[in-house]
Amino acid sequence: MNGQNKPRILIVDDSLLNIEILESILEDDYDIVTAGNGAEAIAVLQKESVNISLVLLDINMPIMDGYEVLEIMNEKHWIDDVPVIMISAENSVSSMHRAYELGITDFISRPFDMLIVSHRVKNTIMLYTKQKKLISMVADQIYEKEKNSNLMINVLSHIVEFRNGESGMHVLHVQLFTQILLKQLVKITDKYNITESDISLISRASALHDIGKISIPDEILNKPGRFTDEEFAIMKRHSMEGAKMLDNLVAYKDEPLVKVAYQICRWHHERYDGRGYPDGLKGDEIPISAQIVALADVYDALTSERVYKKAFSHEKAIDMILNNECGVFNPLLMECLKQSAELIRKELDKQTVSMGEHNEMENISIEMLQYDELSSSEETLRLLEYERMKNNFYISVSGGIFFEYTSSPSIVTVNPECCDLFGISEITNDPFHNEQVMSLIHPEDLQKLSEKLHNLPKDEQAVEYNCKVKFRDGEHNAVIICHPVYNSKSEYSGAFGKIVDKGI
């Protein structure tokens, strides 16, 4: 085996004899690096921890002993990726317990048994290699899901922007400004208890702030001049319309993304002094998510060209907001804006979102808007609601039991957890003639569920059906939540949903 392709093992021992014995056992299959004490071992790990597949570590050594090495490996998080097998003649319960507490994977006593050393080294390296591969695969899958989720949200949000005669960058700018302001808010106060996860969630949900505009007539949405009082009253309805769309997602309305998006849609036009709309909320009655997006929305509206106005400069927009010319905002957020103004300007100059990604979303959005059945606001709303619900559903139930069924061609698709729990394939063609799939639910329950789906009134979003479902370990009580899918001719074409396990 070529030395460059061999796993590298670091042997740490102050006894040259012990090192030579271990080398003689392992050198044919591994690339060996040695250290005579703990300090030398740390120096090696500092330089090339990513290349070390395993550490064989003695306990009692001069300068720095094995326990001290483990403590440093924990501090620097090397122990997370580099397994350690402790080697020592000292095999008391207390010493072994301390070593395991510090994160060792295995313990080998001296004198060495060649077979035991060889097998334990091989098994440990194999275990960590598989673990790293699995972690990498999961990370890649999460990245792809996140990327696809964000792309879908942005594409659908762009549909609203293009109807509004805008470039589509408004959605992306609001996301960016929201994230910057949230991060600055966390720096100056812990009043709102905002976590990194909250920052990501609010930023992503901010893309949906204007989805209610899909219900506003084109002649009002794109009017170049001032609105009449009646027109402005219609325009203001978009915040409630967007909130209603999300509130109608019966099966998913309790999911975090939908909850935050609801707050933003409904209340991003409220103002801190109570003079906003639609509910006239005041101060911190307005959720902080909506307050932040409101500020980001106003800033981008000022610095962007619209059919009714020219764009203001960055400096002018900041001054107008700080002088309360655009309504009253939370003083803490005004401070965040002042402190983040230069960063916002720089990020805009850098064109944070790559034009390739922006053009991709723009092309998809334009293509979707070219279809005849999307020519009216009503039909666009139907498509937007369906795609949004489906997207939110997959985001929210990732890791749960979910499925998708299409009637033509007849295919059922399930997630990996569903495969594990039921012992079925991820994709099954012609499921109604597949014994394994058909055995999961009693035929009469399947028939009743199908009837409820086909007969679901158009104003209802989902069907909930209680029945017995056959898991690997026996029948469980379960709730099946399904959302029907219709084609452009309003014909039933499938369903997607989730199974909630209620136990045996």
Quick overview of this protein structure:
The protein has 504 residues and is an alpha/beta fold. The chain has helices at 16-26, 38-48, 66-75, 93-101, 114-163, 169-188, 196-205, 218-221, 229-235, 237-247, 256-267, 288-303, 314-322, 331-349, 355-370, 377-396, 416-422, 435-438, 443-454, and strands spanning 8-12, 31-35, 52-58, 84-88, 106-109, 402-407, 410-414, 427-429, 463-471, 474-486, 492-503. Strands 8-7-6-11-10-9 form a six-stranded antiparallel β-sheet, sandwiched between helices. A five-stranded parallel β-sheet has the order 2-1-3-4-5, sandwiched between helices.
Characterization of the model:
The chain is 51% helix and 15% strand. It has 504 residues and is an alpha/beta fold. The protein folds into three domains: 3-112, 3-Layer(aba) Sandwich (Rossmann fold); 137-390, Hypothetical protein af1432, CATH 1.10.3210.10; 397-503, Beta-Lactamase (2-Layer Sandwich), CATH 3.30.450. It has a six-stranded antiparallel β-sheet, sandwiched between helices. Helix 2 packs parallel to helix 3 (66-75). The longest helix has 50 residues, at 114-163. The protein is flat. Mean pLDDT is 80; it is low at 351-358, 371-388 and 390-398.
